[in-house]
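Q: I have two molecules that I believe assemble together. Could you output structure tokens for the complex as a whole instead of separate predictions?
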Amino acid sequence: MSTTELIREMPQGSGTEPAPGMARVVQPGEVDLTHGVILYLDDITVSFDGFKALNRLSLAIGVGELRCIIGPNGAGKTTMMDVITGKTRPDSGKAFFGQTLDLTRLREPEIAHAGIGRKFQKPTVFEQHTVFENLELAMKTDKRVRKSLFFRLDDAARDKITDTLKLIRLDTVADRPAGLLSHGQKQWLEIGMLLMQEPKLLLLDEPVAGMTDDETMRTAELFVSLAGKHSLMVVEHDMAFVEKLGGKVTVLHEGSVLAEGDLATVQADQRVIEVYLGR
Amino acid sequence: MRTSFTERALVTLSPGGWRALAAFLAVMLMGVPLLHLAVPAGSPLHVSDYVVTLTGKVLCYALVAVAMDLVWGYAGILSLGHGLFFALGGYAFGMYLMRQIGTDGSYHSTLPDFMVFLDWKTLPWYWQGSDHFWWAAFLVLAVPALVAFVFGYFAFQSRIKGVYFSIITQALTYAAMLLFFRNETGFGGNNGFTDFKRILGYSVTAPETRVVLLGVTSLALAGTLVLARWLVTSRFGRVLAAVRDAESRAMFIGYNPLWYKLFIWTLSAALCGIAGALYVPQVGIINPSEMSAAASIEIAVWVAVGGRGSLIGAIVGAIAVNLAKSWFTVSFPQYWLFFLGFLFIAVTLFLPEGLVGLWRRVQAHWAKRGEAMEWPPAPLEETAKPVASTVVPPPVPVVPLTEERPA
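A: Yes, here they are, computed for all two components at once.
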């Protein structure tokens, strides 16, 4: 779908009136952030054969925010990310990216182009491609077939890849097939790929799983430095890591939000303690 | 822009690759014609009709193998229906060859013989224009491409993958075969098209015509190889391999696999169409057996034997298996299918990277004996770097490169 079609698909407000924030023409690929909210989930329900993976989940993420999502296994964290990235369609509810983009009506590549990047729980990199090629493939550019056929890497793009390689500390292994990297290095490569996409919102599913303590702390520093410029949603079990990130924490339980606030408040919440320790 | 394009085209093949390609074309365009036409038949240097036709036929198969490797080796789509696209190209061009017979057929009618036999009075609508060479040439590309595009669009859109996709392609070609077997379809039923007389006014059996057809086939194969090589070394090729290895990852970084798969799939079908069109005048017959399930599976076997994911491998595989077939079907015709099945199993078990993989292992073995072993092993495509003679053996566990790799 082209960007003009994308715009045509945007809700245009009621009648002939432009919707709030639509008075100015939204540029192709631009996300309308005028209300300070980048992601807005409202009353989302997803059920698999009667099991409600998400149960009337509502959640909003602010522009530039670093939000941590915690919750026991089966709380619906991954399903929530699937809904945001278009992999799963909700049975009911709304999901908006910025003010205008209805995520429930876009397909995965369109959502990626709109500016949502996702890092999976299990690091998935292109194992047969080199580290450099992985970043090059992820780079924000026109990703249609015709452009890929005649694509040539210019100096600016090369510099950008080199900068990202340094940032994720893989510059010495740029020509190595990604399949030969260690687990922690693959995690970093995937984060690097995410950054190459220049997303506005990063979804990170257990980004420090399998990392050493040192790598975990470096990752936390990286994420904190990215907040503000990007919005981040981090799903993580490692409480030391969550504490280091220092943002607002949302606790999911049985498909809906149980508690929200800073880590200390959430940890003191009686219901949260029950969910984590009570059973 | 123009110069950068030329530069890009030049590095598509290595200098050695270009030289090998030039040598191949020199043999096919000059060597063979000279030895066939100018050297008298009694001379040991003479190249016979049989050899010229067999070479042409095998090169057509090699072209199909390259097309197959593009979708299977590079995009991970195993088609067991590529015989259909080959046959459609063959039939499209066969229509032209049938019209070129004119009134020289058994019934001396302007209609092809099988239509007279069926007591048809006029040409069906889809035969209109088939007496024009360029219209036939257009159909050769357009019909397989259109069928592939429509089929591929729905299959890839529905995210049908792996063995399910393979089975559907098999069903598709089988259905088409049943359709073409029917006399009412208007393509000669189970006899298909044969007894061709002329192509562009020249006798189809004249030595000169055969030599020209072989030359055109060689050029088509060389052109296809360069095009395919250019595709797989472009960013398009890298994306395609990325879709093959981790489709959902590719989607989440913004590639739509549908169009990538559809492009290579449709292109592959059109290339098969060209191969089919070149095959028919050289072999002199096209019939629905080309659409049989076994014929399509055989194409996959060629690529597996040669080494999927290597374009040269596909060509080597097609040539090796078909030469073996020509010999087998003469010496032990009843055992050919057993041998083919055995070959497929043996290659899958012991040579997962085919003959090309075997060759690389032999090379690596020599290199290891000589000095340091190269680690990591070269990836699928030909990117082997020369082993520096001064490097100390790396402190990595050396994987023994035995012939039988444990599964």
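A: One point stands out. The first helix of chain A runs from residue 3 to 9.
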